[in-house]
Amino acid sequence: MLTYLFVTYHRLSTLQVIKISFADFALESGASSSVCTHDTVMLIDYDTSNPLAYCGTDLPSDFTTTGDMGRVDFYSDGSVADRGFLATITFVDPE
Ligand SMILES: [Ca+2]
After folding, report:
1. Domain limits of the chain?
2. What is the Å distance from ligand 1's center to 7 Cα?
3. What is the pLDDT of residues 41-55, one digit of tens each?
4. Is 66 left (phi over 0), alpha (psi -120 to 50) or beta?
5. How far is ligand 1, taken at its centre, from the CA of residue 89, in Å?
């Protein structure tokens, strides 16, 4: 069974951007360290076209959107589950 979770963050009526910080991260690794073919977290900045994909156990760097919209996608396939992830979402002034 595949599991999908999509969470969209949209900060209304403000000039702030969205910051996503990971405190814990452990997802099933992909076929190689650079390709996530199984369980994946994707971080999407709506103002750019390059989503970032993460799997394995390396903690992703802090992610800050360009504008006021961002999305976290989580995909999990039907076998091998690891611990998952813990992230904090905050709204911050752009740098
Ligand atoms: Ca899996």
Report:
1. 3-90
2. 19
3. 999 998 887 899 999
4. alpha
5. 24
Please tell me the predicted confidence (pLDDT) of residue 12.
66
Find the Cα–Cα–Cα–Cα dihedral 40, 45, 51, 54, rounded to 10°.
-30
User: What distance in Å separates the CA atoms of residue 38 and residue 27, rounded to the nearest whole number?
Assistant: 9
Which residues fall inside 5 Å of ion ligand 1, going by CB?
28, 38-39, 77, 80
- Residues with Cβ within 8 Å of residue 43, at least 6 apart in sequence: 20, 51, 52, 54, 60, 63, 70, 71, 72
Domain 3-90 belongs in CATH node 2.60.120.290 = yes
How many angstroms does the Cα of residue 24 sit away from the middle of ligand 1?
17
Global pTM reads 0.84
